[in-house]
Design brief:
The chain is an alpha/beta fold. 31% of the residues lie in helices and 17% in strands. Helix 1 crosses helix 6 and helix 9 runs parallel beside helix 10. The protein binds threonylcarbamoyladenylate (TXA) and magnesium ion.
């Protein structure tokens, strides 16, 4: 088991060296914590799959330190994708682009596209810069949870999820709680119109306002593989119910203006939608920690990030 390190500059330098040597580094991002490996090292990437218990044909997002690095990993980048990158990176957005030679099948799941993201989190950016300074090209990182489970938003949650699968040469960098709390918006950029494959904090309106093009939503029978599109995902052990009906002893998650039903255990009372996203996974974990069997959730209404929250709630509830 690797120990949690505090992410001083010296820790980050050691972690970057470890990545280059083929070890794994779990690190904070503003969305959720990632489990990183050198994206050009098939053996190291292979370990991500075994630690997560994830099927090997699921593609991984490559994290890079700046927009300039996009040209290493992708070709034929549409103008609207460049605009999105300029506007929202560093930030909670992943672009799916036509891959370059550098993006091998073990990263893309054999597809012709690669997912790229510049995260907006100081420890993540420092790690990426250090890794690139040493000659690295990008860090492949899925969320640092076991396959199908809830994404971790703190270092302690990473330790709980996968700590026992990490070795003494691996690192777990602590950067505090993730500010966004749900995974990045994934936008397919391989056709004329951008396609939202996973909603997130970069919302449809934000995308449309910046590129003057209305994005489309992915349909479930799309041929693009996105593991978050499986029927259950992001799921705690407790059963998630989005009916709003509770029985005594159930966990309860709703906006703060909605009172706790009699006998229910309040797991989160966010004041607004951003806080809802930030607290959601921690609330799921708290339910499992307390051994609750059911979590009753009142989903937020409206567009924007509310849509992303409902997406995760629907996935979690199966
Ligand atoms: O916020 C995030 O995106 C976090 C942090 C760590 O960056 N990462 C994350 O990775 O959520 P992961 O692997 O847990 O979810 C990424 C999703 C997966 O469902 C994967 O199948 C999809 O993105 N994906 C990655 N590359 C893809 C590609 N080339 N084409 C289609 N889908 C892709
Ligand atoms: Mg994930």
């Amino acid at each position: 088991m690797s120990k949690i390190s505090t992410s001083t500059q010296s820790d980050i330098e050691k972690a970057a060296k470890a990545l280059l040597a083929g070890s794994l580094v779990a690190f904070p991002t503003e969305t959720v914590y990632g489990l990183g490996a050198d994206a050009t090292n098939s053996k190291a990437v292979g370990r991500i799959y075994s630690v997560k218990g994830r099927p090997v044909d699921h593609p991984l997002i490559v994290h890079i330190s700046s927009i300039q690095q996009i040209y290493k990993w992708a070709v034929d980048i549409p103008e609207y994708a460049k605009k999105l990158a300029n506007k929202f990176w560093p930030g909670p957005m992943t672009l799916i682009l036509k891959r370059s030679e550098l993006a091998k099948d073990f990263i893309t799941g054999g597809q012709n596209n690669v997912g790229l993201r510049v995260p907006a989190q100081p420890v993540a950016l420092a790690l990426l810069k250090e890794f690139e300074k040493l000659g690295g090209s990008g860090i492949a990182a899925p969320s640092a949870n076991r396959f199908g489970a809830v994404s971790p938003t703190t270092a302690a949650a990473v330790q709980e999820e996968i700590g026992k699968y990490l070795g003494p040469k691996d690192f777990l960098l602590d950067g505090g709680a993730s500010l966004v709390g749900i995974e990045s918006t994934i936008i397919g950029c391989t056709s004329e119109i951008p396609l939202i494959l996973r909603p997130g904090a970069i919302t449809t309106d934000m995308i449309q306002a910046s590129i003057k093009l209305a994005p489309k939503f992915n349909s479930l029978n799309s041929s693009i593989r996105v593991s978050g599109m499986l029927p259950t995902h992001y799921a705690p052990n407790a059963k998630v119910k989005i009916t709003g009906i509770t029985k005594p002893g159930d966990g309860f998650i709703a906006l703060s203006n909605i009172p706790t039903p009699d006998g229910a255990v309040r797991l989160a009372a966010p004041n607004d939608l951003d806080e809802y996203a930030k607290l959601l996974y921690t609330a799921f974990r708290a339910a499992d920690f307390h051994g609750l069997t059911t979590i009753s959730v009142i989903p937020p209404k409206g567009d924007g990030i509310a849509l992303a929250i409902r997406d995760r709630l629907i996935k979690a509830s199966g």
